[in-house]
């Protein structure tokens, strides 16, 4: 079983509508739909935006469905001159950019309890997805750090900070929460994001225009990639 988590309806409805023999269950107010996607047994969940929603959803998914790997897919803001709307970013690692105990002497993003800043994604998954995406995705494919926080980033100064402090290529609001929960449960994970905006002063307008298109491109890609993961 492969687990797929998306935060918004545009990131999950296109997957749920392609599920065959699907059964839906509600847990803690979240919908989990299980069935066959591209011939692969999957459970697709809609977690809602933000780290707490994503963490809750991921733990429920792991506890109730025991997925052997979890993919967090959706849209993201691009960081840096080389990342464009429509590009794909695959996480080598995820960070929580709004986790900050630096006044107490820690580095920014340090996660007490697990003792890490970067939570590594599954190398095997990154390689496999990177290879397949490069062959089939109609757009640039990047692999690197994805930064997560409970904020929609639409500010050039902030996005430069995320690039400088974390080396991040993209920002979003769930990936590192999914990653942390998978990490402590020893479940492989990867974050797969299509760029909907550049997290700058135009981000709101770009997001409104491009998020549905970017989300659909991510869904189409995921459906093509899934058989490679089984
Ligand atoms: N998801 C898509 N664009 C985003 C942005 N600019 N900030 C946070 N999450 C996003």
UniProtKB/TrEMBL annotation:
Listed EC numbers: 3.2.2.9
CDD domains xrefs: MTAN (cd09008)
Source species, domain of life: Bacteria
GO biological process terms held by the UniProt record: L-methionine salvage from methylthioadenosine; L-methionine salvage from S-adenosylmethionine; nucleoside catabolic process
Pathway connected to this protein: Amino-acid biosynthesis; L-methionine biosynthesis via salvage pathway; S-methyl-5-thio-alpha-D-ribose 1-phosphate from S-methyl-5'-thioadenosine (hydrolase route): step 1/2
Keywords noted in UniProt: Amino-acid biosynthesis, Glycosidase, Hydrolase, Methionine biosynthesis
Short name of any one Pfam family annotated for the protein: PNP_UDP_1
SUPFAM superfamilies: Purine and uridine phosphorylases
Domain (Nucleoside phosphorylase): residue spans on this chain: 2-226
Recorded GO CC terms: cytosol
GO MF terms, alphabetically ordered: adenosylhomocysteine nucleosidase activity; methylthioadenosine nucleosidase activity
NCBIfam families assigned to the protein according to its UniProt record, in alphabetical order: MTA_SAH-Nsdase, PRK05584.1
Protein name in UniProt: adenosylhomocysteine nucleosidase
Phylogenetic classification of the source organism: Bacteria, Bacillati, Bacillota, Clostridia, Eubacteriales
């Amino acid at each position: 079983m492969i687990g797929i988590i998306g935060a918004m309806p545009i990131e999950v409805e296109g997957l749920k509508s392609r599920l065959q023999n699907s059964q839906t269950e509600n847990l803690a107010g979240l919908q989990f739909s299980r069935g066959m996607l591209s011939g692969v047994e999957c459970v697709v969940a809609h977690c809602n935006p933000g780290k707490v929603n994503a963490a809750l959803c991921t733990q429920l998914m792991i506890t109730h469905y025991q997925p052997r790997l979890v993919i967090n897919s959706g849209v993201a803001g691009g960081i840096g001159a080389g990342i464009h709307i429509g590009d794909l970013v695959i996480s080598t690692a995820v960070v929580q950019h709004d986790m900050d105990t630096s006044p107490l002497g820690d580095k920014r993003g340090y996660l007490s309890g697990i003792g890490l800043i970067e939570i590594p994604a599954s190398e095997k998954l990154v390689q496999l997805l990177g290879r397949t995406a490069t062959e089939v995705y109609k757009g640039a494919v990047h692999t690197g750090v994805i930064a997560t926080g409970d904020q929609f980033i639409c500010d050039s100064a902030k996005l430069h900070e995320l690039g400088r402090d974390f080396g991040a290529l993209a920002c979003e609001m769930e990936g590192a929460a999914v990653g942390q929960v998978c990490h402590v449960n020893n479940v492989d994970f990867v974050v797969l994001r299509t760029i909907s905006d550049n997290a700058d002063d135009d981000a709101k307008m770009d997001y409104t225009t491009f998020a549905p298109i970017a989300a659909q491109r991510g869904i189409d890609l995921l459906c093509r990639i899934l058989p490679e993961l089984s």
